[in-house]
């Protein structure tokens, strides 16, 4: 598949019809319904394997580790083998909500060395809008043999704290959470001092990603340029990967702080800024 990190529903359909052998991963996850297996079984892309966010793309730990700590390399490798992945496979991931959880899978697998990986632009809604067929039930492929020698773990809490002194730290949460006016999930409201707000909505058009030019303009509006190192965080680390994916669409490298605000706000002694400005 070509270099874009996105693929359209029609393009994916045509490749599947041509017998391309693409591995499909269905990452159904929402905060209000973390387990998406029932929805997956009710209808998914033909041949897609269900991916569990909480046990395969994340782990559980202390609050000071954040709400979605990264899985170990071994855990991710075991999961990828369950999905049937082999070295050199082409992979497409999708979800049913703005590609946020699909972006987490994209970021983790790309960081573990999967070179041919893309996200279905618009996710399941785009596939349905194109009136393409779905299948029901579970898909259980033969185990794969893929080997992960390493994994991109993003930046640490200390690196995130220092990032505004060397580049732009992007906060991908909704503006009211960034300003500290609302915090529905974490113990403290506000943002990391020095961070600039770039909500996920700024890089989307409906459920699809905006054009590369529009995304680049949104990044530039937040102070990101080709000479400015960019990092992103969000509430629990998922939307930060979505921001990194948007950056890849526009040709902007964005590193991820996976602990994000859930780790920062649960770590004693970390300063908090409020209001619409980055803060000191």
UniProtKB/TrEMBL annotation:
GO molecular function: transferase activity
Residue ranges occupied by any Rhodanese domain in the UniProt entry: 18-136, 168-273
CDD domains: TST_Repeat_1
PROSITE patterns per record: RHODANESE_1, RHODANESE_3
SMART domains per record: RHOD
EC number in record: 2.8.1.-
Keyword Repeat: yes
PANTHER family: SULFURTRANSFERASE (PTHR11364:SF27), THIOSULFATE SULFERTANSFERASE (PTHR11364)
Protein name as catalogued: Sulfurtransferase
Organism: Microbacterium schleiferi
